[in-house]
Amino acid sequence: MTVFSPLLPNITDRLSSAERDALSRKQPVVTGQNGDYVGWILVEAPQDVVWDVLTDYSNFSQFLPTVVSSRVLTAEGNRKVVEQVDRRRILLMDITSTVQTENIEQAPDQIRFRLVSGDLNTLQGSWQIHGVEMKASDRPQVVITQTVTAEANAGFLNGMFYRVFEDSLKENLIALQQESERRL
Q1: How many domains does the chain fold into?
Q2: Is residue 98 part of a domain?
Q3: 46: which DSSP letter?
Q4: Measured between alpha carbons, how far is residue 106 from residues 38, 40, 111, 127, 180 in Å?
Q5: pLDDT tens digit string along 66-121?
Q6: Which domain holds residue 61?
Q7: pTM higher than 0.85 for the full model?
Q8: I need a surface site. Which of 17, 107, 111, 146 has the fewest CB within 10 A?
C-alpha cells in the first residue's frame, strides 16, 4: 500500500478513508457534483513523464478514450490554445463537441485551463502533479489531480450532462495513468 507523503495533506485529507484506499490501489477518485469536481489518480511514473503526457495535446486522440482529434492552435511560451473534438454515445446518439481551451503551463507540475470557445458554457480548472513518498513500489509515484468546473447549456438534460462528464473524468484519469506508465 502507498503511504502518502506529509507534503500531500491538502490533497488526501479531503478524501474519506475509502477514497484514500481506492487512490492507493491506483483507482480514480472523483468528488463533487453538478459541474464542480476534483479528480485524483495515483500513477507509477516520474513527474517528467506525467508532465509530457499531460502536455501532449496533439496526441490526445491516441490515448484519451473520447477524443477524436486534438491540435495546438497557438503556442506562445507557456501558453497553448488547444482545440479538442470529443465524441461519445449518449442515449443511442453520437454526440460530438468541440472546445478550444487556453492552457497555461507552469512546469513541471501545474496546468491551468479555461474555455476560449466551444460547445460548453463554462470549462475551467487545473491539472496538478504531486510527488508521493515511495513505500510499496520501486517506481517513482505521483498523484495527478484535476480540479474542474464545467457547465453545458443542456436545459433539462443538465443532470445527464453532469453524470456523463463525471464518468469521462474517471475514464480520462485512467487513460492518463495508463499512458504515463506505458511510456516508461
Answers
A1: 1
A2: no
A3: -
A4: 19, 19, 6, 10, 19
A5: 999 999 999 999 999 999 999 988 778 888 999 999 999 999 999 999 999 999 99
A6: 9-65+106-182
A7: yes
A8: 17
